[in-house]
Amino acid sequence: MEQDIKIGIIGGSGIYNLEGMKEIKRISFNTKQGKPSDKIIIGKYANKMVAFLPRHGFNHSIPPHEIPYEANIAAFKKIGVSCIISTSMCGSINLKIKPGDLVFPDQFINFTHSRKEFSKNIDGIIHIPMASPYCSELNKIFYKYAKSMKMSAHRKKTVVVIQGPRYSTKAESKWFSFQGWDIINMTQYPECYFARRMKIHYGTIGLITDYDAGLNGKLKWTDRDAKKIMTIFNNNVKKANSLIFQVIKNFPDKFICDCCEYLTKSYYK
Fold first, then answer.
1. Is position 2 within any domain?
2. Does 268 map to a domain?
3. Closest by CA position to 155, among listed 163, 164, 146
4. Which residue in 173, 143, 142 sits closest to 160, CA to CA?
């Protein structure tokens, strides 16, 4: 496998390739944890080797609750990836976070169910600390370059992960907002957990498309607002692409971050 591939990109909805990256080849293989969502693109940008995988498949054929999260991370691990940059389209449950903004969460709240969370095929029975689930260094890098590119960005926020593929009711959305949480998404868990379990740095670029159902009178997914939201959605794809390339171009050789101690230890039962 490609031992010099350190950076892995997981593309969320609308991001099925990285425009500007020189594609070298596409590889398909199985892991002990199963088959990934699709083939992995191996490419090069700014003299750095990069692996790209669309979370939902290239044809967006896999719903959130059926994504092979463990196999996706295991595939990246198999080819030598040590840092994952994830992108996720999200709704806002915080009025200070507007459609078109970027959010780099440092916490998640899991409201999913029946998703595979554990396999003995990795390295035995392990209890993994998840107090700080996202890589603080990746978040700093995202924020630094987003601001340098004049993008409206937020960090140290909490993402609520719901089961999907349905959206929240107004009551659910209001409750999430009342708790002081910030954005809502369907795919951050257990992806984030498996990255930690497999000792890979993980950070997310949350791309805000609309306000969730419980924020009355604000832009949300309705027939009336659909055209506006799709425009924001498409602009978010462009922002993510630009930010990812800026991050890759300036990617550090080594990381010093909070999650390093978790990635270098094993926590056995």
1. no
2. no
3. 146
4. 173
Residue 53 bridge partners (DSSP):
10
- Catalytically active residues are 210, 212
- 8-63 confidence digits (pLDDT tens): 999 988 888 887 888 899 999 899 889 999 999 999 998 899 999 999 999 999 99
Which pLDDT does position 261 carry in this prediction? 66
Please give the angle made by the CA atoms of 20, 66 and 118, to the nearest 5 degrees: 105
Residue 235 makes CB contacts below 8 A (sequence gap 6+) with: 100
Answer whether residue 267 shows pLDDT above 70: no
Q: What angle do CA 100, 103, 46 make, to 5 degrees?
A: 90
Question: Does residue 269 belong to any structural domain of this protein?
Answer: no
Give counts: helices (H), strands (E), the chain.
6, 9
Record the tokens describing residue 84, joined without a space. Answer: 């994952």
CA dihedral 17, 57, 55, 119 (to 10 degrees): -140
Q: How many domains does the chain have?
A: 1
Q: Which domain holds residue 123?
A: 7-263
Q: Is residue 233 part of a domain?
A: yes
Give me the CATH number covering residue 150.
Answer: 3.40.50.1580
Phi, psi (rounded to 5 degrees) for 170: -60, -40
Tell me the pLDDT tens digit for each residue of 170-219.
999 999 999 999 999 999 999 999 999 888 999 999 999 999 988 876 76
